[in-house]
Specification:
- The chain contains 32 helices and 30 strands.
- With 1014 residues, the protein is of the alpha+beta class.
- The strands form eight sheets. An eight-stranded antiparallel sheet has the order 4-1-3-2-28-29-21-30.
- Strand 10 and strand 11 form a beta hairpin.
- The protein is elongated, with a radius of gyration of 36 Å.
- The two termini are 38 Å apart.
Length: 1014
């Protein structure tokens, strides 16, 4: 086949050019995103029940739903959080489950459970998440007039929700524009108490009149002769004037509501607000369509925002939390690493090949392989993202490896005097089998990555497939294109000026120096073997002593500050405190986004928070300002508000959100064993004290509590004063402006109708307010109610087993099982406790064990493939024995750089093993062929080593130089891949010496006795 291709250079080159054109066309159609598009195996159920306490929501709604949802097939874990007025239930599924089927089953379970839930409860929302549901950026919309009144902002809210949002969602690249920060209006009816008392009218009379005139009657089809008409009943109220003109009849007198009450529009009390740089804003979270290219979305949104600024000068538009900036920066860094690494590897060839033409052939093979690989990306459905692009970068060394092996082998045949065409044929044919074996070993190393459980397996599927595609294409290019191009370039036989220059600068006498090194190693073979044994022991020491974590830390210039004031402050006070805090940042912060109180997002669930909490996004003025802002906040907040609980974290990027990489290392979930309920507050304080005393540096904080006001009606006094209990609660709610009596449906919105009183503080109303008994007589509220203040948990957490109180511990350990045992021992003095544990320590250890198992499976597969190639059960052990030695080099460099063992480090070790094993395979194969031709053992080892010397060194240096730029880049892509690059560089550096000297020495030790017998 090779001869056939070499003799038809035009057909071969045209065929490859055609495929390259297809690859270029496909690259323009590949989706570009920060991360692969994967379904996150999680479903969220959101419960809304305004003005209901967390305990009542937990007892009447959440506990019922938890029991029902536990029956959903494939659910791994259920977590719930009940707060005043709302609750969230998060369901995690084993990865690989059909999340669409699970979504349907969850909806079925909720429908079935609705009969067991309170009848006034709105059906809970069910939300299915995927990586593309994570906002690409936020669009902040504010008023240009900073002195505008609240009514103007209400108009802005309507306009943003009904016009701006819909225009954005019309873009094909946008899946959804999630919204928060809107304020709405309501219609209020404030009765004149004196007029009502003189006329004998009660608030219930007004409520009855409004409801009677606001009836929603369905239309009917009627016949009139031969025509059919749709008959509608116009009984709905349309506006404020309709309510004002509603008639009442009392004791034979007719009057309108406007005669006895004020009816008007007002801005509805908001549960939360959002701010852009301390200016009240409506915020749109833009969610990308899964199949869209990120640069297309960025371009279209830039055009649309520019158009908005031109069309609506009374508004201001600002982009924040821009993931496209992160994407552009990260992909740009990785592309630069790809280009610079490839160029460095290319120029290295000139120093080894002693010929200007051979490196040029390799220089042609690399871009050809990359472009054709993009065509296969398109065919298999991969996108261009941080993970797949890093896979191509890591595969450059392997791509160059195949080219070097073929070109070096052809050159050796020409040096032996073979005709050029025969050298091309023999040199290529001779290495086809080991190259195929090399590709298979690469697949054996990377394919098991796909079987990682959870999101990690789905995420690194892209990397494994990218490397496998690169290797497969590289093999085809090496076998089909390289010998043809080699024959075309070398058939003239003339050496150019560049070749003569390269010969002068190339490295000389490498083979002689290598033989001198081999002599040294053979003279001290026992000490050398002992040294390699010590290296394996060092590897084990590093492996068990180095700190292990799930994912590497990433330096950012963005941060998120979460504050719980631990006080029952209202929204206005919360907003004032946040604005004062943001003012303290000054020029240290380039941009801020504040989310105060409850937010209205549907998909952006990390903003779920109570009214007394806030979340601030801060983009610092450079990396150095991040620490300054942190120190300022740590000094400012405790001094002004000592009760507040503050958490400062780096801004979550898509990678961290997918993997929950910012979760607490260890969470102790405390419950009562007998009752499966939360412990009393006093007992929980004792538990916190015991843990804080034992682990003082773990940052253990007291549970979040809130003060509540309990009102309890006295049944005896109710009977004594002849009061209907159903009158008391609406009367109190009206006095507090919280008594919603109906809805008015206008053309494009729904306006609540509220029965309002002269709003007074709750304490004042309970001491001086009154209610009417059945005879219309006034009865003071404090005569029939007992009022007391109590403290209770702000949120009630739940899992599949029971309710619990979380205790977060910021600890680090390589032995989480031992730590959890110590915690159980420390709390053994507290009776009737049930403890469970969660956090990144637990998930990280599970992922680490899976990666170790993947590495073991890879080694077993490698052994099978090598045994089949070598037709020997012993020789594969020679090759595999070098892996633990190379791992020692990888872990040493990671440790020296201050890194940890994490998933990226482990991936780097697997990549390194695949590259370095290929060199050893070809070396052992060369020695075997020499021995089969009758060469004596030691001579075969020396000769085989000399023949494979340059290819091994060039492949090692190509891999090192293609990876080296990752160590010094600052983008997310480089930071993410840096532990992988460190492991690869450390392992390759030591592995090159192992391939050059240890493999031949081990080969000699195994076969020396057989040679003597022969």
């Amino acid at each position: 086949m090779v001869r056939f291709l070499v003799q038809r250079p035009v057909a071969v080159i045209m065929s490859f050019l055609a495929v390259i054109v297809l690859g270029i066309a496909a690259s323009g159609r590949l989706p570009v995103s920060l991360m692969p598009d994967i379904d996150i195996p999680e479903i969220t159920v959101a419960v809304s029940r305004p003005d209901i306490s967390s305990r009542e929501i937990e007892n009447s709604v959440v506990s019922v739903l938890r029991r029902s949802l536990m029956q959903v097939e494939g659910v791994d874990d259920i977590r719930s959080e009940s707060r005043n007025g709302s609750a969230i239930i998060r369901m995690k599924f084993a990865f690989g489950n059909d999340i669409d089927l699970a979504f349907m089953e969850v909806n079925e379970k909720i429908d079935a459970a609705m009969n067991l839930l309170p009848r006034d409860l709105d059906r809970p929302r069910v939300i299915k998440a995927s990586a593309t549901d994570i906002p690409v950026f936020m669009l902040n919309i504010t008023l240009a007039d900073r002195a505008a009144d609240p009514a103007a902002f209400a108009d802005l809210s309507d306009f943003a929700g009904n016009i701006i949002r819909k225009r954005i969602e019309q873009l094909p690249e946008v899946a959804m524009a999630d919204i928060t920060g809107q304020v709405s209006r309501e219609i209020f009816i404030r009765p004149d108490e004196r007029k009502m008392q003189s006329l004998g009218i009660t608030p219930e009379d007004i409520i009855t009149a409004v409801n009677m005139n606001n009836v929603n009657v369905s239309s009917i089809m009627v016949r009139d002769g031969k025509y059919l008409y749709n008959l509608e009943f116009d009984t709905n109220l349309k506006g404020v004037d309709d309510i004002r003109n509603i008639w009442l009849k009392k004791e034979g007198k007719l009057l309108k509501i406007k005669d006895i009450a004020v009816v008007d529009l007002r801005v509805r009390r908001a549960g939360g607000l959002s701010f852009s740089d301390n200016r009240q804003a409506v915020v749109l979270a833009i969610i990308k369509e899964a199949s869209a290219r990120m640069e297309n979305l960025e371009e279209k949104m830039d055009e649309m925002v520019s158009q908005f600024r031109s069309d609506y000068p009374q508004m201001e538009f600002e982009i924040s939390q821009d993931q496209t900036r992160l994407l552009d920066y990260s992909l740009m860094n990785l592309r630069q690493s790809l280009i610079s690494g490839g160029l460095l590897a290319f120029f290295i060839m000139f120093f080894f090949l002693r010929d200007a033409r051979s490196p040029l052939i390799i220089g042609v093979s690399i871009p050809t392989t990359l472009v054709i690989s993009l065509l296969f990306f398109y065919l298999v459905g991969l996108s261009i993202n941080v993970i797949s692009l890093a896979g191509l970068i890591l595969g450059i060394g392997m791509m160059i490896d195949n080219s070097i092996v073929i070109i070096e082998n052809i050159t050796q045949w020409t040096d032996r005097g073979e005709k050029l065409i025969n050298a091309c044929v023999k040199g290529t044919t001779e290495v086809i089998t080991p190259l195929i074996s090399s590709v298979l070993t690469t697949c054996a190393v990377f394919v098991p990555l796909i079987f990682l459980s959870g999101t990690a397996g789905a995420l690194f599927y892209d990397q494994a497939i990218a490397i496998i595609i690169g290797q497969g294409v590289s093999l085809l290019v090496g076998i089909m294109l390289l010998p043809t191009v080699y024959h075309l370039i070398y058939r003239s036989g003339r050496e150019g000026a560049l070749t003569r220059f390269v010969k002068r600068i190339s490295l000389k006498n490498l083979e002689e120096k290598y033989e001198g090194g081999m002599n040294f190693f053979f003279r001290h073979r026992r000490a050398v073997m002992a040294l390699f044994g010590v290296t394996i022991a060092v590897m084990l020491l590093f492996f068990f002593s180095m700190r292990k974590e799930e994912f590497p830390a990433i330096v950012q210039d963005e941060m998120t500050v979460m504050i719980d004031w631990n006080e029952n402050i209202d929204l206005q006070e919360n907003s004032a405190r946040i604005q004062a805090l943001v003012d303290q940042l000054g020029e240290k912060a380039v941009q801020t986004n504040s989310f105060v109180g409850e937010q209205q997002f549907i998909f952006t669930r990390e903003y779920d928070q109570p009214y007394s909490s806030a979340k601030i996004y801060i983009r610092a003025a450079g990396y150095g300002a991040v620490d300054e802002i942190r120190e300022l906040l740590m000094a400012y907040l405790p001094s002004r508000f000592p009760e507040a609980v503050m958490t400062i974290r780096p801004q979550e990027n898509i990678f961290e959100k997918i993997f929950a990489a910012s979760e607490t290392p260890l969470v102790v979930e405390v419950a009562l064993a007998a009752e499966k309920a939360v412990p009393p507050i006093e007992r929980m304080m004792q538990i916190n004290g015991l843990l804080a005393e034992r682990w003082p540096g773990a940052g253990i904080m007291a549970p979040q509590l809130e003060e509540k006001i309990e009102i309890r009606l006295d049944p005896v006094r109710m009977l004594l004063y002849d009061i209907d209990p159903n009158i008391v609660y609406p009367a109190i709610r009206s006095a507090l402006n919280r008594n919603e009596i109906g809805e008015l449906r206008s053309s494009h919105q729904i306006l609540p109708v509220v029965m309002a009183g002269n709003e007074t503080p709750i304490g004042e109303h309970m001491s001086s307010g009154y209610v009417l008994n059945r005879h219309g007589a006034r009865v003071p509220v404090n005569e029939i109610c007992d009022v007391r203040r109590v403290r209770y948990y702000k949120a009630i957490m739940g899992n599949m087993a029971s309710e619990y109180v979380p205790v977060e511990m910021n600890v680090s350990t390589n032995r989480p099982a031992q730590l959890t045992a110590e915690i159980e021992e420390a709390l053994s003095a507290v009776p009737d406790l049930s403890l469970s544990f969660s956090g990144t320590l637990m998930t990280g250890q599970r992922l680490f064990r899976e990666l170790a198992l993947v590495l073991l499976v890879s080694l077993v597969l490698l052994y099978f493939i090598l045994a089949a190639q070598f037709e020997s059960l012993t020789q594969p052990l020679i090759v595999l024995l070098e892996i633990p030695i190379d791992i020692a080099g990888a872990l040493f460099l990671v440790w020296l750089w201050g890194g940890t063992i994490n998933i990226m480090t482990m991936i780097g070790i697997i990549v390194m093993s695949g590259v370095i094993i290929n060199d050893s395979i070809l070396k052992v194969d060369t020695i075997n062929n020499l021995r089969k031709s009758g060469v004596e053992l030691k001579e075969a080892i020396y000769t085989g080593g000399s023949r494979r010397l340059k290819p091994i060194i060039m492949v090692a240096m190509a891999s090192l130089f293609s990876t080296l730029p990752m160590l010094f880049g600052s983008g997310l892509g480089n930071q993410l891949q840096r532990p992988m690059a460190l492991a690869l560089i450390g392992g390759m550096t030591l592995g090159t010496f192992v391939s050059l000297y240890f493999i031949p020495l081990a080969y000699w030790y195994i076969y020396r006795k057989r040679e003597k017998k022969a």
